Amino acid sequence: MTKTLNNQNKNVFNLENSNFGIVSDFPPKADQPRADDIRISNLKGVLKIFLLLVCWMSTTTVALASSCAEPPPVEESYAISSSVFVGKVMMVRERTRNVKVSFKVYKVFKGTLDDVSVVLTSLPNDIGQGYPFHPEEQYLVFTYLQEGRDHTNLCTRTKPLSEASTDIKILDRILRQEPPPAAAATPSL
User: Fold this and answer.
1) What is the spatial distance between Cα 141 and Cα 151, in angstroms, rounded to a whole number?
2) What pLDDT is attached to residue 97?
3) CATH label of the domain that carries residue 97
4) Is residue 183 part of a domain?
5) Is residue 112 part of a domain?
6) Rounded CA gap, 143 and 86, in Å?
7) What mean pLDDT do residues 85-107 have?
8) How many structural domains is the chain composed of?
9) DSSP 166
10) CA atoms of 146 and 174, how far apart (whole Å)
11) 3 state DSSP class of 182
């Protein structure tokens, strides 16, 4: 009886200290995996799940950071914007909830702006798609009103002036109220 009780205690002890059940004193059969093999196999499985989770989380973060749809064409962006202008960033100041950007305004396509205008954007690392403005750089800025203030973000047509020549030509045409250039005539057969 004492020997049986000791074997039962041994099995209970092994069960508590092992994730794989009772370990017996008998050698495993040829077709059964050893306990060490099971532990390594389970560890590899857990590691694979962990790596998949890390990969998924990193792609989800990237997806959230760049989940804007293609901005509408210039004409539509102009129509839905509260202001459109070209300006040079004078100051970028991070605040608690957003970033306050001061611009020296050079040309206004839409809206009523002072020589120095302030636009708000979300924090750059925020899901709000904050636009990463850099001091002393020039931008074509499309804003929208939110709570009575001009805002912009990555999902608007806002872009560095060096990448905005086509947009500026279209905006100049809109200001002159010229119709868009006609599509090239296709010869009829």
Assistant:
1) 10
2) 81
3) 2.40.50.120
4) no
5) yes
6) 11
7) 93
8) 2
9) H
10) 25
11) coil
